[in-house]
Structure formats: C-alpha cells, structure tokens
Amino acid sequence: DARVTQTPRHKVTEMGQEVTMRCQPILGHNTVFWYRQTMMQGLELLAYFRNRAPLDDSGMPKDRFSAEMPDATLATLKIQPSEPRDSAVYFCASGHRGGGSTDTQYFGPGTRLTVL
Amino acid sequence: DAKTTQPPSMDCAEGRAANLPCNHSTISGNEYVYWYRQIHSQGPQYIIHGLKNNETNEMASLIITEDRKSSTLILPHATLRDTAVYYCIVRVDHFGNEKLTFGTGTRLTIIP
Known about the structure:
The structure holds two protein chains of two kinds. Chain A is mostly beta strands. Helices cover 0% and strands 53% of the residues of chain A. Chain A has strands at residues 5-7, 10-13, 19-24, 31-38, 42-50, 53-56, 65-71, 74-79, 88-95, 106-107, 111-115. Chain B has strands at residues 9-13, 18-23, 31-38, 45-50, 55-56, 61-64, 70-75, 84-92, 106-111. The mean pLDDT of chain B is 92. The chains are: A mainly beta, B mainly beta. At the A-B interface, strand 5, strand 9 and strand 10 of A face strand 4 of B.
C-alpha cells in the first residue's frame, strides 16, 4: 500500500532555529504539494511542484520559507528563522498528472511543528 | 473556484446512511465537485469526485443535482471510523491548477 511519508512527525524548536521537514512522495507521482494547517487558518496550500519544478509558491512566506525537490523521491520544506506563528501541522501530498489521470492528492501523516 | 457551503456539524447513527450536503450555487460548467475527509490528527483523504453525473466508489456515493448547484455525499453504512471532518471542494480540473482550497467542512460524528 503506497503512502506518502513525512519526517519528522513531531518537532519542537526554539524561535530563530532552522527547521527542515522532509517528504517522500508516492513512487511514480510527479506532483508534490505542501499544505499547512492551523486552527485559525485551516488547511492552506503553501507550494507545489511538478516534475520537481515549482509551479505555485504564492502561499508561502518568501522571506523565511523555502521548498525544494532535490530529487524525485524527496521534497523538503525549510523555515529559517522559525517563529512561534509557524507552529502548525505541515502536510505533504503527492499526485500524478498526465496521461488522462485524475487529479487526486494523497496526503502524508503530517509534521506537527511547535516553535517556542 | 466556486464557494461551497456545508453545515458545520452532523450526527449519524452507526450502521445508517450518512448524507452530507454541500451547496455550490455559483459552480460553473467546467468545475468538478471533490470530497475529502480528515480523520483526527491524520492527513486529508480523497473520497470521490464528479462533474455532473452521480458517482459511486468503494467508499461513498456522490449525488449531484441536475442544476449542479448542490450535491450530497452518501456513506451508505456509517461506522465509527467514519467520524471525521468532510470537505466539499469545487474546482476546475485544469492541468497546472491543482490547488485545493479547503473550507471549514462538516464535522461528522457517528454515534454508536
């Protein structure tokens, strides 16, 4: 049963520290998404990639957030420096587009980030 | 993408059919209706989607009204594991526009 994996599952850090979250998309999927969920804002898209190229990162604070795909099996979301308002659950999702495939996104279990 | 309106919460008895409504009166002709759910502390899970015809899969059925201004997700025999927040999302299935905009959803509680 193919799944999206995310590490770490939980992260507690202090304000000002760098945080890196990792995602392994489902093998063969060519689209990767990063979402953030908070009680106040709900689920919101931060950025997404197709074939490792960024397609939309308009939801991401540019000054401190960065998202990359070093290779097809790894996506990273980095926050530097982290702030308490970044505390949230960060979800990665993957999907496959092309060849008439439907637009279904498969979500990982999330990384719960707490910035003190 | 068209706006959707869902009731904030619903209860359903275990074993009964759960019918979750969604209004999308401003939907346009090329917008699909998607349903996802999020069980507590987990990532959202795709359930089903449709354009104008009713759809059924192993998880649920989707009934879309003829004018497409509303739809109903049906879980035919609800179990306790179906307790979750259910999101109705209306969007164009356009290559290069895969963004999902989640609203507040309906919190469905299955009662034993």
